[in-house]
Every structure is written in C-alpha cells, then in structure tokens.
Amino acid sequence: MCAVANDAMERARAIVSRASALAVLTGSGISAESGVPTFRGAGGLWRTFRPEDLATTQAFERDPKLVWEWYDWRRGLVAAAQPNPAHHALVTLERRCREFTLATQNVDGLHALAGSRNLILLHGDLWTLRCVTCGAKREDRRVPLPVLPPRCVCGGLLRPGVVWFGESLPEGAIERASAAAANADALLMIGTSAAVWPAAGLGEVALDAGVPVIEINPEPTVYSDHVLSLAGRAGELLPRLL
Ligand code: OAD
C-alpha cells in the first residue's frame, strides 16, 4: 500500500474506532473474494447477460423457465461460497457498536451466514421463493431445484424472492437504511458501484446529514472524490480497519 493510502487508512480507523453507531451499505464487491460474481466491471454478470432478459417481471412472464435456469445457476455458485474476511470483519464491528445497521444489496445470504444480525436486505434474497399468484413465501435452499420453474402448493408460479429492475424495494427497507445512515457516526460503503438507486442514495443521505462516509472499493465510484476513499479489496482492507 502507498503512503497516501496508509494515511487514509489511519483516518478511517480513527473514525471507526470512535463510532458507537455505524451504518454500512454493501454491494456485490464484498462477496467477490468469496467467488461470487459482481454485476458490473470485469467479469460482471451484466457483461455477459442482459438484465432485461433475466431480471424483470416482464422477462419472468415471457419465459419463467429461462429466468429460473439463470437463478438456479447463481444459487449454485453462491451455495458453494463461504463468507470471506470482509463479511467476518463486519460481524466483529457489529459486536463492538452500540448501534449497527448493515444494509446490503446482495441476495447471496453471506452476511447472515457470517453472523451479521441487524441486516436490511434491500434487494431481497436468493433463497426465498414467492408465489406470483397467492403471495406465499417459502425458503428453499435446494441446489439445483428439482423442477424449473417451481410451483406453489396453490398451483401458481414461484419466483425468486429478489427485487427486479422496475420493482419497489421491500416495504420500509430503504426508510430504515436511510434513518440509520443519517443518524450514524459513520457510513461505510463497501463493494458497490453506487450505480443503482435508491441504495446508492444512502451515501448522499449520510453526506447531507454531515455523517462521514468511508468507501472501500478497488475502483473509483461517483462518491470517491467526496468521501474518505480506501482503494482496495474489502477482504484485505476491512480487517485492517479494525
Ligand atoms: P456492481 O457490480 O455494480 O459493483 C460492484 C463493485 O464492487 C464495483 O464497484 C467493484 O469495483 C467493486 N469490487 C470488486 N471487487 C471488490 C472487492 N474485492 N472488494 C471491494 N469492492 C470490490 O454491484 P452492486 O453495486 O452490488 O441489483 O450492484 C447493485 C445492484 O445492481 C445489484 O444489487 C443488482 C445489480 O443489478 C439487482 O439485481 C436489482
């Protein structure tokens, strides 16, 4: 690491060690070191697949089997993955803080598997299936699923319990995350390109409230010039931040 980065790390450490209330926003980059692909950038899913073919209600109505084959494949990738040092570092931070809120855009379940407790799943969860007819939800961790597309006991189609493009976030999720970001002593933004709203707006919420924001990402984002930016991988930098 270069001298400037070390200085930034020291400033970040000082902020985090003083904070008794922390808010965190994570994106797919935090799971990259666990072997889960990100969406944008090199190797990102949206480089190979078109979101409009796979991650919209229209795509599901058009071809539920195709959509499910893609989600079943992703469930397989995630089932083989384990939390990495970045996920574990956030568990340690949660234990240290009086108030700790972790809002994630990730649907992989790795934060929960690591032991994070106060979690807000902004974009839902790969392991929950929801009936498009009766609305029933159920957890199903089988990989692969025996029949695609899966069906509910009511006969309706089950869909992945994730948020697709054009859909609303789970009720109250962004409100709770925004309140946490505005009232924290610091907001950490980890492994997100900050390209997707409303999650990306949490950085603005914090900045508007005068809350210091620390970003961890090997690549610059729209926030990098306005926040304390630590350029590097979460699995290396987050444990050092503690
Ligand atoms: P993106 O793929 O947009 O961004 C991932 C970010 O992680 C990039 O900025 C990378 O530079 C960074 N990154 C890569 N490796 C990293 C590492 N080891 N440590 C830290 N950062 C790393 O993923 P998200 O921001 O999560 O939504 O994308 C947001 C939403 O867009 C997703 O939830 C998904 C997607 O479309 C839906 O499917 C609704």
Description:
- This protein is α/β, with parallel strands linked by helices.
- It folds into two domains: 2-36 and 83-123 and 169-241, Rossmann fold, CATH 3.40.50.1220; 41-79 and 135-162, 2-Layer Sandwich (SIR2/SIRT2 'Small Domain').
- It has ten helices and nine strands.
- It has helices spanning 3-18, 45-48, 51-54, 57-62, 64-79, 85-96, 110-114, 173-183, 202-208, 234-241, and strands spanning 21-26, 99-104, 119-121, 124-131, 137-139, 158-162, 186-190, 213-216, 228-230.
- It has a six-stranded parallel beta sheet with strand order 3-2-1-7-8-9, sandwiched between helices.
- Helix 6 packs parallel to helix 10 and helix 8 (173-183) runs parallel beside helix 9.
- The longest helix is centred in the first third of the chain and has 16 residues, at 3-18.
- The protein is elongated, with a radius of gyration of 18 Å.
- The two termini are 17 Å apart.
- The structure holds 2'-O-acetyl adenosine-5-diphosphoribose.
- 2'-O-acetyl adenosine-5-diphosphoribose binds at residues 27-30, 32-33, 38-41, 44, 55, 105, 123, 163, 165, 191-193, 195-196, 216-219, 221, 233-235.
